[in-house]
DNA sequence: GAGGCATCCTGTAAGC
DNA sequence: TGCTTACAGGATGCCT
C-alpha cells in the first residue's frame, strides 16, 4: 500500500525515466482511473512535455510544458496511487497487465508509462497549478498539508493544531490536512516508537511528546525510503516493477500475537475506522478518556 | 466548522 | 469442491 516512502520511490523513477519526454498519445482503458472528464485526457496530454516529477504526501504530479521554452507550466498531470496503483515504465511491446487502466506513449518511441491499478482507488487527472504558494501545487490538492519530509512543514504549527483537536492521535495523523503522507501502516509504526496508544486524546499531548512523535514519523519513513518502501505482496512496486523490502522491518503492523520487539508482549489488533490498529499492550497502554 | 462514518473496489483467505 | 463472507485501506461526501 503506497504511503509517502513508496510514492517517493515512484517519483524518483518518474524523474529518471519520464521527465523531459513529450507525449505522443494517451489511452484511457477504465473510466474510473481518470477524474474529471476521462475523454479529455488524451487530447489534453497529446504533444505536451512532462517536465519533472513532484510530490506532496501521497500525491505525485508532473508539470506540463508546451515545448522547449522555459515558460512556467500552468497545469500538471496529477496522480494518486490509492491502494493498489502502480506507475510502470515498460517496453511498448510488453504484454498488457491485467489491470492496465491508462497507457501513455511518447514521441521518442521509448518505454511507455502505464498506470496499473487492481482496486481502482487510484486516479490520474490534469489540473491547473496554483501559482500562489512558494511552490506551485495542483489546485485539487491545495488543502493537503505539507508532508514531514518537506522543508515547508512547520513542526510548531503542527503541534499547536494537534493540541486544538478533540480527537484521537491516530485520526489526527491520518488527517492529510494536518500532515500528509502518513497512512495506516506508518501511523501504527510511529505510534509504537513514540509509545503512544492510537486513541490518546490529542489535547492531552504535550509539545515535547508531539515532537517525539514527529521524529518517529520521520525516522520510520526515512528508513522505509532507504529500503525502497513497504510491500506485502506484488501490489506495490516502483516504476521498474521491483518491490520494496521494508515490511521485514515493521515492528507492529500486521504482527498480531507476535512478540513486541521491545518487551516481548504479544502485539494486539484492535478495530479502528473500519480497519486495524496494531499496538503493544504494555508499551502503549490504553489511555484514560480514550478517543476511538 | 469539526468530527465521524459509509462508500468506492477487487483479490485473497477463511468458514461453512 | 464450491459458495459466501470478511478483510485490506485513501480520499470523498454526507450527516450530525
Automatic annotation (TrEMBL):
Keywords: DNA damage, DNA repair, DNA-binding, Glycosidase, Hydrolase, Lyase, Metal-binding, Multifunctional enzyme, Zinc, Zinc-finger. CDD domains: EcFpg-like_N. Belongs to the FPG family. Residues 251-285 form the FPG-type domain. GO terms for biological process: base-excision repair; response to oxidative stress. Involved in base excision repair of DNA damaged by oxidation or by mutagenic agents. Acts as DNA glycosylase that recognizes and removes damaged bases. Has a preference for oxidized purines, such as 7,8-dihydro-8-oxoguanine (8-oxoG). Has AP (apurinic/apyrimidinic) lyase activity and introduces nicks in the DNA strand. Cleaves the DNA backbone by beta-delta elimination to generate a single-strand break at the site of the removed base with both 3'- and 5'-phosphates. Its EC number is 3.2.2.23, 4.2.99.18. The gene is mutM. It catalyses: 2'-deoxyribonucleotide-(2'-deoxyribose 5'-phosphate)-2'-deoxyribonucleotide-DNA = a 3'-end 2'-deoxyribonucleotide-(2,3-dehydro-2,3-deoxyribose 5'-phosphate)-DNA + a 5'-end 5'-phospho-2'-deoxyribonucleoside-DNA + H(+); Hydrolysis of DNA containing ring-opened 7-methylguanine residues, releasing 2,6-diamino-4-hydroxy-5-(N-methyl)formamidopyrimidine. One of its GO terms (molecular function) is class I DNA-(apurinic or apyrimidinic site) endonuclease activity. DNA binds at residues 99, 119, 165. This is Formamidopyrimidine-DNA glycosylase. Binds 1 zinc ion per subunit. Its cofactor is Zn(2+). Monomer. The active site is at 2 (schiff-base intermediate with dna), 3 (proton donor), 58 (proton donor), 275 (proton donor). Residues 2-122 form the Formamidopyrimidine-DNA glycosylase catalytic domain.
Amino acid at each position: 500500500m503506497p504511503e509517502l516512502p513508496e510514492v517517493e520511490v515512484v517519483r524518483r523513477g518518474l524523474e529518471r525515466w519520464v521527465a523531459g519526454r513529450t507525449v505522443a498519445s494517451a489511452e484511457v482503458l477504465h473510466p474510473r482511473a481518470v477524474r474529471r472528464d476521462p475523454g479529455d485526457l488524451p487530447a489534453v496530454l497529446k504533444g505536451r512535455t512532462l517536465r519533472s516529477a513532484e510530490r506532496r504526501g501521497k500525491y505525485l504530479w508532473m508539470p506540463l510544458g508546451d515545448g522547449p521554452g522555459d515558460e512556467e507550466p500552468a497545469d500538471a498531470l496529477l496522480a494518486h496511487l490509492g491502494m493498489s496503483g502502480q506507475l510502470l515504465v515498460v517496453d511498448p511491446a510488453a504484454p498488457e497487465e491485467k489491470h492496465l487502466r491508462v497507457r501513455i506513449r511518447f514521441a521518442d518511441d521509448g518505454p511507455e508509462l502505464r498506470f496499473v491499478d487492481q482496486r481502482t482507488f487510484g486516479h490520474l487527472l490534469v489540473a491547473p497549478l496554483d501559482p500562489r504558494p512558494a511552490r506551485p501545487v495542483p489546485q485539487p490538492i491545495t488543502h493537503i498539508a505539507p508532508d514531514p519530509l518537506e522543508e515547508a512543514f512547520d513542526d510548531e504549527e503542527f503541534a499547536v493544531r494537534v493540541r486544538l483537536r478533540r480527537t484521537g492521535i491516530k485520526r489526527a495523523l491520518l488527517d492529510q490536512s494536518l500532515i500528509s503522507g502518513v497512512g495506516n501502516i506508518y501511523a501504527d509504526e510511529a505510534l509504537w516508537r513514540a509509545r503512544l496508544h492510537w486513541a490518546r486524546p490529542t489535547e492531552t499531548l504535550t509539545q515535547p511528546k508531539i515532537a517525539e512523535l514527529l521524529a518517529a514519523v520521520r525516522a520510520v519513513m526515512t528508513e522505509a525510503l532507504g529500503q525502497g518502501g513497504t510491500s506485502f505482496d506484488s501490489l506495490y512496486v516502483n516504476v521498474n516493477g521491483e518491490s520494496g523490502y521494508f515490511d521485514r522491518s515493521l515492528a507492529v503492523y500486521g504482527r498480531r500475537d507476535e512478540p513486541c520487539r521491545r518487551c516481548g508482549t504479544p502485539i494486539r489488533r484492535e478495530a479502528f475506522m473500519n480497519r486495524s490498529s496494531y499496538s503493544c499492550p504494555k508499551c502503549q497502554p490504553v489511555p484514560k478518556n480514550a478517543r476511538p
